[in-house]
Amino acid sequence: MRRCILLISIIISCQAIREFPRDFLFGTASSAFQYEGAWNEDGKGSSIWDVFNHEPYHIIDDSTADVACDSYHLYQEDIAIMKDLGLKAYRFSIAWTRIFPNGTPTKIDQAGIDYYINVFKTLKEAGIEPVVTIFHWDLPEYLEQLGGWMNPRIADYIGQYARICFKHFGQYVKYWVTLNEPSTNCIYGYEEGDFAPGLKLPGEGAYQCAYTHVLSHATIFHIYNNEFRRKQRGLIGFNNMCFWFYAKSNSTEDIAAQIRALEFYCGLFANPIFNGDWPEVVKERVAYRSWLEGYNFSRLPEFTPQQKRFIKGSADYFALNAYSSYVVEPVDDDYYSAPSLAQDSAYITSTDPSWLQSSDTIVSDPNGIRSIINFVNDRYNPKEIFITENGWPDNGGLEDNNRITYLNDSLSGILNSMLIDGVNVKGYTMLDNFEWVLGYTVKYGIVQVDFDSPNRTRTLKKSAAWYKKVVTTGKLD
Question: Which CATH superfamily is domain 24-473 in?
Answer without folding.
Answer: Glycosidases (3.20.20.80)
